[in-house]
């Protein structure tokens, strides 16, 4: 998954310190795969996955819309050339003054999951469209979602009716099947719920039009994942089954699925050591860890593919850890990672499929280490 | 624990957005408490706990030395006025070129826990003093340490002998009893081990002189913790018991114990909502969370005291979460936090004892949110 362009860049530029390199060609291919797989859905790229200006500009040019989590992300999307009508303020937790500012900037599509958030939007962004996020079970996802976002479907019905009565357009529902979702059927269950919300509100005289299918489209790490096309088919089938020939407007919010596979982190082996003469595993310490951008190794949730310059020979299990003086800064320990027995201090290592949720996750200066450098090529 | 100075600062300055305010008077008191409790130990402040220049300058002026985790922290300590002989490079995981640079800057005291690290120091910082970190069990600590740092005591003996034979001064041993250690007896067990290492090497003709007692001194969060004076007594007793009248030179590395209680984070309630009509708990969303500086709520390890403007009346359990679109950004859910039933959206909340391990832990820009602002007064 390290493209030739990334290899050449690293070989020629030899950047000092850990860094992420993102290949825009892969982002373009991914965008095109999404449009082919779901031709009737609008794509709202989840900016939080990687807000690099080059990525946003490319996607804006390709026609993408943008799902944003904060005012800063809205400003980044605007700066990349997206008109305000291509931006949704997709965070269900917003300060009223931030909603007002987004409204001033022209944003008219907002996420909610509570009465209280509807009230803020009614005051600060009157006439805007809202979609209400419903809770789903997240079954089958590698990075399961908690109950933090969304509300029970029965409550979503009341929240949307409340919006309708408050001078806000009750546009539809959203859900998120869980990040890195490998079960294409997960959307089926969520769409059944969405259709119920549509029907109940129709009976009350409120016509919903929008289903936000969320993200969750996976990146290939160590295991194969279904193709984007197969997700598209499953989703289209489920939409037809639950909405018949009155298909709603749909949007998708790929983040990881758009950029995860487009990036590679270059890191250096700082130390290889054992804890005692009998220690069966080596500890391999890198110059990047949990606080330098690899936060998604939390609970060893995501297991990135790793390439070394000594691949092909014998391997042995290693505990992989970061460079900080924090004992929580360990990447893989519960399930040690097999790495070449010939690995040496000073070797460069490539951590693949790291284009999403790395740069912005990096800490400001924990232990004095600089945040992750990024190059978008 | 919110001092009058912090209250006045917040009332007069009314800073926008979440921020940390650190009261230097409390840092000064803490420093003095450490020197009184352990008058024969040198204090090496763990810069990683909070590297704010004002804190480093104050401590340098008071006579403190500095435990650093990286070149950047060494440079910060030097800039604060500490001479290089008051700085230890306490990370056991260092690039050889960083060791060389530290040596150029005058640093002559280094941590090791492996043969490989000794070799780097022998090449890049010849003649320096090293201490070898030994593994301890961390029993009784709220933030237990993994096996990431240190090696078995038997191996530490070999590592120090290897240093001695490589042109490096085998100075002694270090250990870390675990952060937020509430059992004053934890140092007793570690010192017994240290004394064994001293004796074994003495038999081989190598005289160790230094015991680095590490950190682990707790901050008072919700539960009472032993006083610094009682730690001092326990440590002095254990030293006398295990080293008799040939007491080694000792150093301590307080970080959390020096600055944790000196800081308060001001945050704002962004949303209060329930997930369904029957939901027994409220979800309270703040404008700071796990990625904005409160990383130590990971696994709900540290439970900060929280003050609201509505304290004193009825309380009810809340799930406390941060503002990002990340479902892992939840502070307290397993054990909900009791907060006033009258709490309202827009209320200011004070999160106390947050002076350590907050600002530098904050992510660069996750979800577009700015890192934690800090004011040192």
Q: Please, how many helices of chain A?
A: 10
* CATH H-level superfamily title of the largest domain in chain A: Alanine racemase
SS class of chain A: alpha/beta
| Shape assignment of chain A | elongated
Chain oligomer state: homodimer
Query: How are helices and strands ordered from N to C of chain A?
Result: HEHEHEHEHEHEEHEEHEHEHEEEEEEE
Average of per-residue pLDDT values of chain A:
93
CATH topology of the largest domain in chain A: TIM Barrel
Q: Which regions of chain A are unreliable across 5 or more consecutive residues at pLDDT < 50? A: none
Radius of gyration of chain A: 22 Å
The two chains with the largest interface, and their residue counts, are: A-B, 76 and 76 residues
> What's the level 1 CATH class of the largest domain in chain A?
Alpha Beta
Strand content of the residues of chain A, in percent? 15-25%
In total, the number of strands of chain A is: 18
InterPro entries (chains A, B): Ala_racemase/Decarboxylase_C, De-COase2_N, De-COase2_pyr-phos_BS, Orn/DAP/Arg_de-COase, Orn_de-COase, PLP-binding_barrel
Protein name (chains A, B): ornithine decarboxylase
Cofactor (chains A, B): pyridoxal 5'-phosphate
Modified residues (N6-(pyridoxal phosphate)lysine) (chains A, B): 48
